[in-house]
Automatic annotation (TrEMBL):
Pfam families: NMO. SUPFAM superfamilies: Inosine monophosphate dehydrogenase (IMPDH) (SSF51412). It comes from Candidatus Lambdaproteobacteria bacterium RIFOXYD2_FULL_56_26. InterPro entries: Aldolase_TIM (IPR013785), NMO (IPR004136). The keyword Nucleotide-binding does not apply. One of its GO terms (molecular function) is nitronate monooxygenase activity. Keywords: Dioxygenase, Flavoprotein, FMN, Oxidoreductase. The lineage of its organism: Bacteria, Pseudomonadati, Pseudomonadota, Candidatus Lambdaproteobacteria. This is 2-nitropropane dioxygenase.
Length: 429
């Protein structure tokens, strides 16, 4: 009898889920619509709080970005080296977090869970206060769980220790090594509040990577996952460990659970679904991608390596830093490495500055020009049908879930695909 992923279940406290966790993809790629459908299927999905104010403006009629732009208008035309002035209004940030979560949770059906991915590296010129507001805002709004990502989060648990849901909400952490988890456990030991799960993100994951630029390819997800599983056992705690990065098929996922993982976190397969927030043009670019077009670079001002397609619009940019309107990457001193790179390029080429080594991540995340992807993105074309006009058919979240749960081969068979309306690709897309 063939072993399938559907033979397993993930247990977090009193809740039981299908062993599929959809990773958080920002800005608004892992939409509420995607998360709601994944929860309806019985799995767990993340919404993302990346550029949360912009997401609120897009979906809920707020004007947070416009207000920021008007407030800081006098600074916009100046090539300032420091943008500490571009502080976020904490009340507005709290409102944006609540709006996203409350609207999503209100529409939730099914037995699955809706979690939110909260990145420590979104420092917003005021790291501690903005992180605390985002964490407490989503907890107040009723989110099922929070996954702490993009950073070690050594102080994040303490920020919410006084919250009434601190011991009820599901709390998890993304790590790329056993060492990162050891540091977190040591730092938070006094709170006597263990994690509910750990996501181990390997070297083939999409977006930011927790490895050095010159050695990410030396690591193996299965090996790191086993090290983390063994470490959790030494703690005497039954903490579910969930590997992520490069898990492209049901067979890949099943092998991870056979090894001792509790579930898998996946994302690449969901970037090109009907429910994804990626514009159709980007989805079709993902379908057409080739392995040699997938690169890992250091253009992110966060300092982390980042995986993306090599023709992402964010690579080689001449746009002015957009900190007054966005500013999500500004550190606690009001600095960002893109500001420095841009100003240096203006001095060299004032009429045509073009920055190759860094990018204005906030602007390009908002415009869907940062084509971050998992290494396996080039295999997406093998999961679907090519249509008569040369484009590729989008699948639904339900179809991708079905293939992970029941598939043990390397691609979706067209017989598994139910026909649905394929939106026409237009110039607006």
């Amino acid at each position: 009898m063939t072993d399938h992923l559907d033979n397993y279940r993930l247990t977090l406290g009193e809740n039981t889920y299908l062993p599929i966790m959809v990773g958080g993809m920002g800005m608004d790629i892992s939409t509420s619509k995607l998360a709601l459908e994944a929860a309806r299927q019985g799995g767990i999905a993340h919404i993302s709080d990346a550029l949360i104010s912009a997401v609120s403006d897009k979906h809920y009629g707020t004007n947070f970005l416009k207000t920021r732009q008007q407030k800081y208008q006098p600074y916009i035309s100046q090539n300032l080296a420091n943008r500490f002035h571009a502080q976020f209004d904490l009340d507005e940030l709290y409102q944006a977090s609540r709006l996203l979560v409350e609207n999503t949770m209100h529409a939730k059906t099914g037995t699955g869970g809706i979690f939110i991915n909260i990145m420590e590296k979104l420092t917003m010129a005021n790291p501690r206060a903005t992180l605390e507001v985002r964490l407490k805002g989503v907890m107040d709004a009723g989110i099922d769980g929070i996954t702490l990502s993009a950073g070690l989060h050594l102080g994040s648990m303490a920020l919410i220790a006084d919250h009434p849901r601190f011991r009820q909400i599901k709390l998890g952490l993304i790590v790329s090594s056993k060492r990162a988890l050891e540091l977190f456990v040591k730092k938070t030991a006094r709170l006597n509040r263990p994690l509910d799960y750990v996501v181990v993100e390997g070297p083939l994951a999409g977006g930011h990577l927790g490895f050095k630029i010159d050695d990410w390819f030396k690591f193996d997800l299965a090996e790191i996952t086993k090290e983390v599983i063994d470490y959790t056992k030494t703690l005497g705690l039954n903490i579910p460990v969930i590997p992520a990065g490069g898990i492209f098929t049901g067979g890949d996922a099943t092998r991870m659970l056979q090894m001792g993982a509790a579930a898998v976190q996946v994302a690449t397969r969901f970037t090109t679904t009907l429910e994804s927030g990626f514009p159709m043009k980007v989805q079709q670019r993902f379908f057409r991608s080739k392995e040699e077009e997938v690169v890992v670079n250091l253009v992110s001002p966060t300092g982390y390596p980042m995986r993306m397609l090599n023709d992402s619009p964010c690579i080689g940019t001449s746009i002015r830093p957009n900190c007054e309107t966005l500013g999500f990457i500004l550190d606690g001193n009001g600095d960002c490495s893109y500001i420095d790179a841009y100003n240096q390029e203006v001095l060299r080429h004032p009429d045509n500055p073009k920055v190759m080594d860094k990018t204005c991540l906030c602007t390009y995340m908002k415009s869907y020009g940062t084509w971050t992807c998992g290494h396996m993105v080039y295999r997406l074309k093998d999961t679907t049908n090519q249509l008569p006009d040369g484009s590729f058919q989008q699948l639904t979240v339900a179809q991708v879930f079905h293939d992970y749960l029941h598939g043990d081969d390397q691609h979706i068979k067209p017989a598994l695909m139910e026909p649905h309306h394929q939106p026409a690709l237009t110039t607006e897309d």
